[in-house]
Amino acid sequence: MLIRRRKGWEIAESQATPEHLFFKRRDVLKAAAILPALAALGVAPSLADAFDDPSRALYPAKRNENFVLDREVTPERITAHYNNFYEFGMSKTIAEAAESLKTRPWTLKIDGLVETPQDIAIDDLLKAMPLEERLYRHRCVETWAMAVPWTGFPLAALLARAKPLGSAKYVRMETFLDRTTAPGQRQFWYPWPYVEGLTIEEAGNDLAFMVTGAYGKPLGKSYGAPLRLAVPWKYGFKSIKSITRVSLVAERPTSFWEHLQASEYGFWANVNPAVPHPRWSQATEEVLGTSGRRPTQIYNGYGEFVAGLYTSMEKEPLFM
Fold first, then answer.
1. N or C: more exposed end of the chain, with fewer CB within 10 A?
2. Which residues contact 96 (CB under 8 A, 6 or more apart)?
3. pLDDT tens across 160-186, in order?
4. CA 135 to chain centre
5. pTM of the entire structure?
6. Do 206 and 157 contact (CB within 8 A), yes or no?
7. Using CA atoms, how far apart are residues 200 and 164, in angstroms rounded to an integer?
8. CA 238 to CA 205: how far, in whole Å?
């Protein structure tokens, strides 16, 4: 007799947002004749853009049922219009500005301490990777939170393509740099391009996920198309958007926000309700689309699966 233990991120399927609610809408949206009506109703531009994306036939991907939620999925109409994407502005309402991002052609460079450095076009990468959908919580350092059905593949699978050398200790990721397209990158006081990093152990954890889609479609531009990272046990600024380069390195990289203010936005940035930001408490969070606040969970609720990454690291500032 097979006895299955439910993992910490799992709940009964009956409590998850029903899959058919997403699929029913997708079927309707396939009728291209309704796109003008969608625009008139103020639907996110990324919905219409999905029809023009060369990878659209790959979606929706099959959901990995090991990843379910302790809350409902946040509606797309909210998440698509409430994002930090400083390349396109300092407000949360950057969805319209982000539509200027050109996602084709798009090439991902994998280099550094690897056996097989490579440049790969995004559509070739998507065809080569086994895409799946995962339901993930997302927690911003600013204390707002959401839950998103991301589509993508494990970061570990990407690294396996390049075969990291034993001397590789960190994964450094870099976003695009195009000041003509992204007005925020004309602000010289920011250290563009956006850079983030993980240890090789963090990158190899199954939860570290390279995102290519959301809500059963190719990834919308406001989310960081065509390729972003999701590390759900960390604060959201670690989940770098619009990635163009992944480098395996020996020295710990200095990330974008760490470069600006290391006392507030450190390298590790693991979620912890007991460690406040210097300017606000992290004890509670606001889940977008709901009323009131709820208690923040250590490692955003994924501690059972990632806490072991930080054994014997008590002297490191793991939660900032």
1. N
2. 45
3. 999 999 999 999 999 999 999 999 999
4. 12
5. 0.85
6. no
7. 9
8. 15
